Amino acid sequence: MGTQIKKVSEIPGPKSKEILARRAAALPSGLGKSTEVVVEKAEGALVWDVDGNQLIDFAGGIGMVNLGHRPEAVVEAIKKQLDKYIHTGALVTTFEPYIEFAEMLNAITPGDFPKKTILSCSGSEAVENAISSAKYYTKRPAVICFEGAYHGRTMLTLSLTSKYGLFKKGFGSFASDIYRFHSPNVYRKPDSMTEDEYIDFCIERFDQNLISHVDPSAVAAIIIEPVQGEGGFIPVPKRFLEKIRQVCDQHGIVFIADEVQAGAGRTGKFLSIEHSGVIPDIVTMAKSIGSGMPISATTGRAEIMDAPHLGGVGGTYSGSPLAVVAAHETVKQINTPEFLAKATHVGNIITSRLGAMKDKFSIIGDVRGLGAMLVVEFVKDRKTKEPDMDFAMAVIKKCVSNGLILIRAGLYTNCIRFLPPIVITDEQLNEGMDVIENAIQEVLQEKEALVERV
């Protein structure tokens, strides 16, 4: 065992088990948890549980802490703000931190045109604001989204979200006038097609859907994650993003890039769409822009953002001063050449380690992503690509019990996602990768032993 993971008890230990029992009694069972870790404190890329175990965090609160747990400058900014005011309400008063942060996002997001920003508390709200503004601006009802998409859990955003069984089952009916198109997944393309032929085919289907599903004249917005998050960290090919931009330009449709998980420096650029050079009309941001504080942002073309009538947008908590100062400090540090280079560096280490594991273990079907937003996908057979969700779960359980926090992803829930804080040290990163490699080896051995016993 390396020096960063320090176990003093099993995970979960006795104190953790006690609190987990209280959780089961007090919280609804629908509120899932990926691990049995009960947190005492966290810093950088490390988490300590209530039993005194020291763990490495590869989940980052679902991509919330790219800048690490409790970055010093962010904590200081929050403390300083606490001594001034906690809430006066952006709908009631004006406070400069909100304006400063909006000015910053207007300046650094892609597109050389006047922009405006509205802040809210969650990724779902950021998407709601984007779509409401697009509908108001275009005076059209329809929205196009994609297979594998995740945009949130409010009525509208759950309607946009893909993966029915996990997120939508039992919660219908959903919002109308939403049309879901096929999104390219190069790993699962037909064997007979080259990558280029497959992307051509996806573009052809896109055009066909604009006849069979919805006419462009009815479409207010097309929303896409440039790297699908929950869908399995699938980067959308540049040509497909260019196609969306072209269709939007041709028909006066608003192009929304959902950067909630892929943004905030995770991929080696401030926003993941920057890798393609495609300029969206609106971007939604949340998660790591606030280092764990509940804040999200919708930044877009001024004329679209200005479309709703006075009082038509906003929320009581939107642009909370504590969250805003945290986000301002966070983005200031994330959007630097040094931080973005570090994200690329972290991604390179993970990719090379996972590449070596892929050569070693045939259970690994694919390793993919962008920058430090990566997954490993487990399959029962590399030819058929049949998903192996049980294997992914077994690996995670083993890793967590050995001091590494991990979570799953993918349409089939057969992927493990890598979202470690970008501030992680090489030593911590490699130690975590060792834990994963050992866990895969052990789960394979256990499976073999089971087969022999049968």
Total strand segments: 17
The side-by-side strand order for the widest beta sheet comes to: 4-12-11-10-7-5-6
Q: Describe the sheet with the most strands.
A: 7 strands, mixed
Q: Count helical runs.
A: 14
Distance between the amino and carboxyl termini: 33 Å
Keywords, separated by commas or semicolons:
2 domains, 454 residues, 17 strands, seven-stranded mixed β-sheet, Aspartate Aminotransferase, domain 1, 14 helices, alpha/beta, Aspartate Aminotransferase, domain 2
What does this structure look like?
The protein has 454 residues and is of the alpha/beta class. The protein folds into two domains: 14-63 and 337-453, Aspartate Aminotransferase, domain 1 (Alpha-Beta Complex); 73-334, Type I PLP-dependent aspartate aminotransferase-like (Major domain) (Aspartate Aminotransferase, domain 2), CATH 3.40.640.10. The protein has 14 helices and 17 strands. The chain has helices spanning 14-26, 60-63, 72-82, 96-108, 123-138, 155-160, 164-167, 195-212, 238-251, 302-305, 321-334, 337-360, 389-401, 426-453; strands at 39-43, 46-49, 54-57, 115-120, 142-146, 178-181, 219-224, 227-228, 234-235, 254-258, 282-285, 296-301, 364-370, 373-378, 404-405, 407-409, 415-418. The strands form four sheets. A seven-stranded mixed beta sheet has the order 4-12-11-10-7-5-6, sandwiched between helices.
